[in-house]
Amino acid sequence: MELITKSLPLEEIENVLYARQFAYDILRRFFVEEPSREYIRQFVQKNMIDLFPFKEDSPEIREGVAAVKDYLATHDVVNIESHYQQLHWDYTRMFIGPFALPASPWESSYVRKDGLLFQGTTMEVRKLYDKYGVAVRDFNIEADDHVGLELDFMYHLNELCLSLCQESDFEKIKELIEEQSKFLRNHLLLFVPQLCEKMISAANTSFFVGMAKILPNYLKFDLEVLHELLNTEIH
């Protein structure tokens, strides 16, 4: 990736944040639950996968984007019910059940030896959500360290950064960027690469193979972006 210079105008920082918002919105939606009809229609009709940010800087992200595009080129998930159900079932089978999950979506499954949910890892993530006023759906039913919820948390913190740009609160923006960097290092990047390896092996659609290639490589790239932002003066 190109290094961000040591001093940038606020408008350029906002452009980076808007690109991140677009990327995290796509990722959180496809990892937190089965694809909804409404969102998949919007995703396809607006050709959103082709607009995925930073793919020019990462061959791995480009490879994932190509896999998603290949699937959508041969499956009309908007108008053909069986194609939509195939995509829907692929998510359900991997992440929800009813059978043994080939790709557990919870951080605890990878970072804890016992793999138990609602223990230390889940509670650590919950405290961070509470700190920033992020409410988890199905509280105490869905564990807070679900990959989709963690991606949603990144989306939320980035959204806060964008709102602070309107106030030119550079100090608070830097604090939130540091929080996101820590969350990537201490949570998402500790388990997402393993999760996505399992997805690539288990997925029945090239759509989710593609998403599994995009996600870990985007997170690694985003960590570099955040590092550059932390070392950039905003004016």
Offer a concise description of the structure.
This protein has 235 residues and is mainly α. Helices cover 66% and strands 2% of the residues.
What distinguishing features does this structure have?
Molecular chaperone TorD family protein, TorD/DmsD_chaperones, 66% helix, TorD-like_sf, mainly alpha, chaperone, TorD-like, 2% strand, DMSO/NO3_reduct_chaperone, 235 residues
Q: In words, what does this structure look like?
A:
This is Molecular chaperone TorD family protein. The structure is a single chain. The chain is mainly alpha-helical. The protein has one domain: Orthogonal Bundle (TorD-like), CATH 1.10.3480. Helices cover 66% and strands 2% of the residues. A two-stranded parallel sheet has the order 1-2. It is globular, with a radius of gyration of 18 Å.
Order of helices and strands: EHHHHHHHHHE
- CATH fourth-tier homologous superfamily: TorD-like
Q: Strand portion, in percent?
A: under 5%
| Main pleated sheet | 2 strands, parallel
Report the top-level CATH class: Mainly Alpha
